């Protein structure tokens, strides 16, 4: 009888040890699975964001010189262009740069096409080269500001915060405005647009809530230091003052693009 009791106690003890070991093993397996899942998610987010934000977008109004800048960056040569009806893309690596490079994408400037192409490529933007015609800026300032406003208040662009390079092109023309003056006038125009757009939304439904983000800081006049992305204004000339065969002056833009590596 005593022997049977000892055997039973031993069996209970062995069973308990096995159960404890099973519990530890199960916990270990769960922890291992969680670690693997978290690692996969981290790598997916890290590499996914790194790979998707691999494009440099050229955006601007028609005739601002985007396509010629696109060609100059790729080949350094002058090439006659016409209004683009679709996007142009090519691999681009800055001079003397051993990095991986990016996809350079020239988006159509026509107002009927531009929104759909911005929507298509905005998530991939590591940088946006916003091309301004410095010679005709004074008469186009409203249209330029409206396009820039739509970019700066886009929730996807604001979240991804690509570098914004406002490229004041056609500096070879005598009447061209300087980058500093263009920046000052755009800040004033964007400040006015913010007020009118907010008022329009309020009159529609009594609120200003929508899918876009608020431009700048409430209660303060707008300036570019208030946006979530790095903004640089620079001057360039995609055409040469010496004629079509002369060299373009796009060195400032090339230096800014090289900093993206």
Radius of gyration: 28 Å
Identify the overall geometry. globular
Structural class: alpha/beta
Distance between the termini: 82 Å
Sheet with the most strands, sense and barrel status: 6 strands, mixed
Count of helical segments?
A: 7
Poorly predicted regions are 42-51, 206-210
Number of strands: 6
Range of helix content: 40-55%
Cross-sheet strand order for the largest sheet: 2-3-1-4-5-6
Average residue-wise pLDDT: 82
Succession of helices and strands: HEHEEHEHHEHEH
Strand % is 5-15%
Can you describe what's shown?
With 261 residues, this protein is α/β, with parallel strands linked by helices. It has helices at 2-52, 66-75, 114-121, 137-152, 155-160, 179-205, 251-258, and strands at residues 55-60, 88-92, 102-106, 125-133, 163-169, 231-235. It has a six-stranded mixed beta sheet, sandwiched between helices. Strand 5 (163-169), helix 6 (179-205) and strand 6 (231-235) form a beta-alpha-beta unit. Helix 4 (137-152) crosses helix 6. The longest helix is centred in the N-terminal third of the chain and has 51 residues, at 2-52. The chain is globular, with a radius of gyration of 28 Å. The model is unreliable at 42-51 and 206-210 (pLDDT under 50).
What does this entry show, briefly?
Helix content is 48%, strand content 14%.
Secondary structure blueprint with pairings:
Elements: H1 2-52, E1 55-60, H2 66-75, E2 88-92, E3 102-106, H3 114-121, E4 125-133, H4 137-152, H5 155-160, E5 163-169, H6 179-205, E6 231-235, H7 251-258
Parallel strand pairs: 1-3, 1-4, 4-5, 5-6
Antiparallel strand pairs: 2-3
């Amino acid at each position: 009888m005593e022997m049977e009791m000892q055997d039973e106690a031993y069996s209970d003890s062995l069973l308990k040890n096995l159960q404890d070991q099973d519990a530890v093993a199960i916990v270990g397996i769960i922890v291992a699975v969680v670690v693997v899942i978290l690692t996969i998610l981290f790598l997916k987010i890290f590499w996914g964001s790194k790979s998707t934000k691999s494009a440099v977008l050229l955006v601007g109004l028609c005739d601002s010189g985007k396509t010629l800048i696109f060609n100059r960056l790729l080949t350094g040569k002058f090439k006659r262009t016409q209004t683009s009806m679709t996007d142009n893309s090519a691999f681009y690596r800055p001079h003397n740069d051993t990095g991986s490079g990016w996809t350079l994408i020239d988006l159509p400037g026509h107002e009927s096409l531009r929104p759909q192409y911005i929507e298509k490529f905005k998530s991939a933007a590591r940088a946006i080269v916003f091309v301004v015609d410095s010679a005709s800026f004074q008469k186009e300032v409203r249209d330029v500001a409206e396009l820039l406003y739509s970019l700066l208040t886009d929730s996807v662009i604001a979240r991804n915060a690509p570098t914004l390079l406002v490229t004041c092109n056609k500096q070879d023309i005598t009447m061209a405005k300087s980058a500093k003056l263009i920046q000052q006038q755009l800040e004033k125009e964007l400040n006015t647009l913010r007020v009118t757009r907010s008022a329009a939304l309020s009159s529609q439904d009594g609120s200003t809530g929508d899918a876009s983000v608020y431009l700048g800081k409430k209660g303060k006049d707008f300036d570019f230091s208030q946006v979530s992305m790095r903004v640089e204004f620079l001057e360039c000339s995609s055409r040469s003052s010496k004629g079509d065969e002369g060299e373009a002056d796009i060195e400032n833009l090339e230096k800014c693009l090289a900093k993206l590596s």
